């Protein structure tokens, strides 16, 4: 068995869509990044790559490569899954999204459904939680959103 942890953060800005877990969320600001800046998917990818011992998403999908400009993070997650499926399967994923606003809970079901399809994993093996930072730090000031994931892999 192998365990990996992933963390990602992006700044909130105007004139960008807010995408979390592959789901567009109604909010006045979105996350700034080279891709769609989906912090949830990015933290899952880093957790998977960490469990595999294969670096991080910056190594695999550098922001200096225009091929990834504006790309859906779900497309990148599919590429990471190609690496996972060579030798392993996902046992479970646990995630927390840190944001003052918007509230995450109303979107969790749709996020799990979307991720389940890409990860080829039953929804009940994907856990997503939302939390605030009690108005502390950059998340508390609504300057950005962060996400942390942990994943357990097992041999096929």
From TrEMBL:
Essential cofactor(s): a divalent metal cation
Stretches that traverse the bilayer: none
Cofactor note: Binds 1 divalent metal cation per subunit.
Annotated residues for binding of 4-CDP-2-C-methyl-D-erythritol 2-phosphate: 8-10, 34-35, 56-58, 61-65, 131-134, 138, 141
Pfam family, one: YgbB
Pathway: Isoprenoid biosynthesis; isopentenyl diphosphate biosynthesis via DXP pathway; isopentenyl diphosphate from 1-deoxy-D-xylulose 5-phosphate: step 4/6
Site (Transition state stabilizer): 34, 132
Gene Ontology MF, one: 2-C-methyl-D-erythritol 2,4-cyclodiphosphate synthase activity
Coiled coil: none
GO terms (BP aspect): isopentenyl diphosphate biosynthetic process, methylerythritol 4-phosphate pathway; terpenoid biosynthetic process
Superkingdom assignment: Bacteria
Binding site for a divalent metal cation: 8, 10, 42
Assembly and interaction partners: Homotrimer.
NCBIfam families (alphabetical): ispF
Membership in a protein family: Belongs to the IspF family.
UniProt function note: Involved in the biosynthesis of isopentenyl diphosphate (IPP) and dimethylallyl diphosphate (DMAPP), two major building blocks of isoprenoid compounds. Catalyzes the conversion of 4-diphosphocytidyl-2-C-methyl-D-erythritol 2-phosphate (CDP-ME2P) to 2-C-methyl-D-erythritol 2,4-cyclodiphosphate (ME-CPP) with a corresponding release of cytidine 5-monophosphate (CMP).
PANTHER family per the UniProt record, alphabetical: 2-C-METHYL-D-ERYTHRITOL 2,4-CYCLODIPHOSPHATE SYNTHASE, CHLOROPLASTIC
Protein's name in the database: 2-C-methyl-D-erythritol 2,4-cyclodiphosphate synthase
Originating organism: Dethiosulfatibacter aminovorans DSM 17477
Organismal lineage: Bacteria, Bacillati, Bacillota, Tissierellia, Dethiosulfatibacter
Gene designation per UniProt: ispF
